[in-house]
Amino acid sequence: MTKSAWLFLTLALAAAGLGLNVLSQGVQTVSFVAAGVFGSLWVLAIIIGRRIKFDPVLR
Description:
Layout: H1 3-21, H2 25-53
C-alpha cells in the first residue's frame, strides 16, 4: 500500500475508535462520518495506487 493509503486507513480506524468511545451523540456522529470519508479515501488511494504502479511490460 502507498503511504497515503496507510494514512487514510489509520485515520479511519482512529475516527471509528473515537466514535465508539465518546458519550456525546454529536461527537459520535461526526466521528463516524469522518471514518466513512477516510474509509472512502482509503479505497480510492488503493485503486489509484494499483493503477499507477501496474506495468506488465517493463521495457
